[in-house]
Protein: Pyridoxal 5'-phosphate synthase subunit PdxT
Amino acid sequence: MLVGVLALQGDWREHKVTLESLGAEVLPVKTKEDLERVSGLVIPGGESTTISNLAKSFGLFPHLREFARSKPVLGTCAGLIMLSNEVEGAAPGQEFVGGLDVKVSRNAYGGQTHSFEAEVSFGAEKERVAFIRAPRILAVGSAEVIAKLGDEPVAVRQGKLLGATFHPEITGGTLLHKLFLESIH
Ligand code: GLN
Structure:
């Protein structure tokens, strides 16, 4: 099984390392042809405006949208923003893949100096993760909340799509990657 990590910008290498540590074979995805080869895709954290601009100039949006309609996609931080149906604070003209019925607010905790690590709960399981210029999930429509920070939703699932406001791959978190890989099998 070959899985992809969208490698336009952001910390795609860390996701590749995490997925490989779980036994997956990983392809950095930069083109439509790369996308056609993979059974699932991770959209990493980074800067959603840059990821969006690059995806637009490489003509990837129609292919990413088509992929997300039928195959597993995990989006973390900027990747969650890319997968959200509604984005507060989007840059003018910024395009998204969509598919997750959530409303997110970009940079909702403040800037880089307000970045932090925290323990989030996946039901009874806890994991230490990093929030880096993270978005907040303001509203959850038909998506299912799968992780919380206190009372706040920080990860959601809808069909084969998974999204989280945080970076698990920086602190050695694997729970989301495991859910992602399980949904491919
Ligand atoms: N603030 C970034 C954005 O809006 C996301 C930050 C991240 O992915 N760590 O795209």
Observations:
- The CA atoms of residues 13 and 106 lie 23 Å apart.
